[in-house]
Design goal:
Helix content is 32%, strand content 15%. α3 links the parallel β5 and β6. The two termini are 34 Å apart.
């Protein structure tokens, strides 16, 4: 078996990689009979020379590999017929912008194992960049506050060498006394955001006190779970399982936090059909205190009404005018400053690659080499080497056919 680490080909460039040089060395020590090579890249934050220093072969052509491992979507022209690929494809929800990619994989008889669909027995994803999205998203939210209020300046996350340098920069800032931040979510994203806030000296406070009290001695945050910002319409007690089964019986109760917080960091997972957390009408409430929304979850026109489009690493902020319900300058009077970068882990590529590689070595690589006895890889395999959708993903048939039509049009 021969495995190749792909260079990322998306535009704008993604500087991450699935395994670091140290992890490649660990790979070789654990599985000496499996060949591992790294495709050369002048974009990757971890340079070719670093892999070479660890004795890892860096090559231009990976077409002789059996399995090709990337991070983000692979360009259609870079798909190698008859090979197995692992990457985040963003196709299982029938995202329109990747229909042609799925069609091309079927046409070229490429087998795709989609990271997003790698799940354990409990149904939870076993791998991802969520922690890093939360860390960078919280930092970007703090940076947005400084830019909006013109009270401090922080470097862009992508300009920092690593997480330690980013934390050092933010720790040196004097955040406004009494600044209050509401943070939603207890998954990887929410916990990552909390990790960053803790590291830079933002103190966690009691949720009840957060609503009724002001604080001295710097910035504070309240960490909110589902039951804190959702309530039953019939007034009965919140039940998590009931919420999962029938979210239509619930409504948002977040507005009270929006009237108490200066900033909202959205690190929750939003399931389709759940109540919108803060609506356009909510944003028109004159008692609203929030000035900055760092929407790490970045569901467009979804549960957080001010997130009307994604933003980019190069241009991370825009403004939302609540009265006109439209975009404006990020620091316009009366506006909500929105940070909605949809590829946040790209801003800490070295750390994010290391964290992802740890999970790959623990949860995924052994399955590729030693066997998939629990069917984890099988459950994430959208296409097979015969040019067919697997049974689990047969619902993508019309979506893929539409992509095939688009492909022919552009040929």
């Amino acid at each position: 078996m021969k495995i190749g680490l792909l260079r990322e080909g998306k535009v704008p460039p993604d500087e991450r990689v699935a395994l670091t040089p140290e992890q490649c060395l660990e790979f070789r020590n654990r599985w000496p009979d499996v060949e591992l090579v790294v495709q050369t890249s002048d974009v990757r934050r971890i340079k070719d020379s670093e892999y070479i220093e660890y004795g890892i072969d860096v090559v231009h052509d990976v077409s002789d590999c059996d399995i090709l491992i990337g991070v983000k979507e692979v360009n259609i022209d870079d798909l190698v017929p008859g090979k197995t690929f692992l990457f985040f494809s963003h196709t299982y929800k029938q995202q329109p912008y990747n229909a042609q990619l799925l069609a091309a994989m079927l046409e070229k008889k490429v087998s795709l194992i989609d990271y997003e669909m790698l799940k354990g027995a409990d149904g939870r994803r076993i791998i991802g960049f969520g922690r890093w999205a939360g860390i960078v998203g919280a930092y970007n939210g703090l940076r947005a506050w400084g830019l909006r209020e013109k009270c401090f300046e922080l470097p862009r996350a992508i300009e920092c060498t690593d997480l330690a340098e980013m934390i050092e920069a933010a720790s040196a800032v004097a955040f406004p006394d009494g600044m209050k931040i509401a943070l939603t979510g207890f998954g990887r994203v929410g916990k990552g955001a909390a990790e960053l806030l803790d590291a830079v000296g933002v103190s966690q406070v009691d949720k009840v006190k957060f609503l009724s009290e002001e604080f001295e001695g710097g910035a504070v945050y309240a960490h909110l779970g589902l039951s804190d910002y959702n309530e039953r319409k019939d007034g009965e007690d919140f039940d998590r399982e009931d919420f999962k089964q029938d979210p239509s019986s619930f409504r948002s109760s977040f507005l009270k936090y929006a009237k108490a917080a200066d900033m909202f960091i959205a690190g929750h997972y939003y399931a389709e059909g759940s109540p919108y957390i803060i609506t356009r009408d909510d944003f028109k409430d004159h008692e609203l205190r929030i000035k900055v929304v760092a929407d790490v979850s970045c569901d467009i026109d979804g549960p957080i009404a001010c997130t009307i489009r994604p933003s980019t690493v190069a241009d991370p902020l825009y403004g939302y005018n609540p009265q006109k319900e439209e975009q404006c300058a990020f620091d316009a009077p009366g506006s909500i400053t929105v940070m909605a970068v949809d590829n946040l882990p790209c801003e800490l590529p070295r750390d994010a690659s290391n964290g992802f590689g740890i999970e790959m070595m623990k949860h995924v690589i052994p399955l590729l080499i030693e066997g998939d006895k629990d069917g984890i890889l099988k459950g994430a395999r959208e296409t097979d080497l015969n040019g067919n959708l697997t049974e689990k993903y047969s619902y993508l048939k019309e979506y893929a056919e539409g992509g095939a039509t688009e492909l022919q049009t552009h040929k």
